[in-house]
Amino acid sequence: MTEPVIELDGVSKRFSRKQDVFGLLATRMGLAKRPPEVRAVEDVSLRIMPGEVVGLVGESGCGKSTLGRLVAGILPMSDGRVLHRGRDMSTLSAKERKRATLSVQMIFQDPYASLNPRMRVADIVGEAPRVHGMVEGGYQDYVAGQLRQAGLDPAYKERYPHQFSGGQRQRIGIARALAVRPDFIVCDEAVASLDVSIQAQILNLFMDLRDRFNLTYLFVSHNLAVVQHISDRVVIMYLGRVVEEAAVADIFKRPNHPYTQALLSELPRIDVRRKAFSAIKGELPTPLSPPSGCHFHPRCPFAMPRCSLERPRLREVAPGQRSACHLNDLN
Amino acid sequence: MSTVEPAVATPTLEVRNLQTSFFLRSGLARAVDGVSFTVGRGKVMGLVGESGSGKSITGFSIIGLVDPPGRVHGGEILFNGRDLTKLSETEMRRLRGNRIAMILQDPMMTLNPVLRIDTQMIETVQAHDRVSKSDARSRARDALGMVGIPSPEERLSSYPHQFSGGMRQRVAIAIAMLHRPDLIIADEPTTALDVTIQSQILAEVQKLAREFGTAVIWITHDLSVVAGLADDVAVMYAGRIVESGTVDDVLDRPRHPYTRGLIGSIPSRITQGERRLHQIPGMAPSLLALPKGCAFRARCPRAAAVCETPPEISVPAPGRTLRCFRPYDVELVS
């Protein structure tokens, strides 16, 4: 059996306000409460196999971007482990860890904010490989090659990011990520800010690059249509927890979790005309005080008393399909 | 409440040959160039296009909010039969926010961050109707309730930052609805929202059009939303409407190569598992340097020598317009 490129084992991330000395002291002495904690990601386990495209879907504030950042190693996690090709990142030697970190790269949503406006494109793309000694042949040639790969004319390499359109900027971000020859890429809403025709170009580029370099993607997005197009497997998150996970065809054909069902039924489709829009009642609760038991129960049309008491575990409901819902225990 | 009684059979809005340009030092940018369309009572029209296609400027032109160096310099905007381009600023102010309202992509552009919601809504009511403050307040409360904001009485005394993004957008819609306008121009109001919140907003808009006969112009780049919401659709490219008609006609039988390209580049269940999307090569041209003739020529798979002259509007079928020399034949694409 092949080994997963990335494996998450019970990963959690909590954010809380930093306390000063007096605050800490007051808390220690029982005079003050601990500052509130946001559980952005709660006990997520996930395996991503080589060459797979995994779509990570959820509403704003569900923790999908945080999870992406944990995978990419940008954020430290509060609990759990991330295994890279079967090895725990935290047990690696400094040298090995550097290699492992480099092999996981990230592409961000906003190409306006994620590129340094004062650096030339050549330096944005070439800085990391030069520092890490990955440049083979001439530096200029290497940068030109990387730009060409991402569909940019190398003649533009002396330009600054503001001289490019949104789609081209996203290509610069892709070239930068690929320049250190990663095998795993986290795309955080990488096409969300682009026009449809440009979005199609970038999605096609992602697939071409995957074939060429044997890349594995974690594709974080709130756009279900994009995820359906690009992914092999889909993971649905709600308030920090994974509620359902399945192959793309299965999840769209027979979604198991009520939240997934609601999400899919509200997805506008070009072939659905004069739809009666309805929507899930209520809004995403604040992660500062998530509902008890199943996080979705206040909005769930099928909620039972048990749902507010006990957290449902993710369990297999069909081959390759896992869902966290108490309804599955009824039959 | 309404001062203008629409005559029977007069459409709420009829735009004829609208010209809006930006007079820049670097040249003349024709943002809207000869745009014509009609929106009837209770109808939703989707105005679709990519960034820079002129769809938002068309909306701003109708409500009279194009700022210099931009100017509406040609055409007619007939609103319930009255030409808005001929109105004085005072007359326009009487209509704006009263009979015509606009919803913007970012609700914080509508809402004042330092004023409570009730202050802003009461101000809007009293700007057009002579009513007491308490009457205005109760109207504001009803409007909030209608867009599905829970406990509207308490929420009235909140500040905008105390609402979530979706709730803020609903407040903006409630403000737009305060005077039961005849026309609402919605400029990408759900683009920044999640699917679930988006459908709540779309449901409100549908209700509005059906129950109060409000005509809606829904400006968006998302054809899937238009498919579910609109009756008619107009596709804009580089300041011009290249194709228009009923949603079923245009989306099922697109004839303009750009429309067809747009539809093909949408990821959907049809493209699931397929590795590549159809892509339109290149990108939208700058309005300051439009190619001669058809602006889409450089990206068009069917371009020929004839396309170097500007294509005129043709009417291939009743209710359908097309601006193309070499359109695709009518055939079903599914």
From TrEMBL, chain A:
GO BP annotations, alphabetical order: peptide transport; transmembrane transport
CDD domains the record matches: ABC_NikE_OppD_transporters
InterPro entries: AAA+_ATPase, ABC_transp_ATP-bind, ABC_transporter-like_ATP-bd, ABC_transporter-like_CS, Oligopep_ABC_C, P-loop_NTPase
Chief location category: membrane
MF terms in GO: ATP binding; ATP hydrolysis activity
Keywords: ATP-binding, Nucleotide-binding, Transport
Topology within the bilayer: Peripheral membrane protein
Homology family: Belongs to the ABC transporter superfamily.
Name of the molecule in the record: ABC transporter ATP-binding protein
Automatic annotation (TrEMBL), chain B:
Protein name: ABC transporter ATP-binding protein
ABC transporter domain mapped to chain residues: 13-263
GO BP annotations, alphabetical order: peptide transport; transmembrane transport
Source species taxonomy: Bacteria, Pseudomonadati, Pseudomonadota, Alphaproteobacteria, Rhodobacterales
Coiled coil (residue ranges): none
Family: Belongs to the ABC transporter superfamily.
Keywords: ATP-binding, Cell membrane, Membrane, Nucleotide-binding, Transport
PROSITE patterns: ABC_TRANSPORTER_1 (PS00211), ABC_TRANSPORTER_2 (PS50893)
Gene Ontology CC: one annotated term: plasma membrane
InterPro entries for the chain: AAA+_ATPase, ABC_Ni/Peptide_Import, ABC_transporter-like_ATP-bd, ABC_transporter-like_CS, Oligopep_ABC_C, P-loop_NTPase
A GO molecular-function annotation: ATP binding
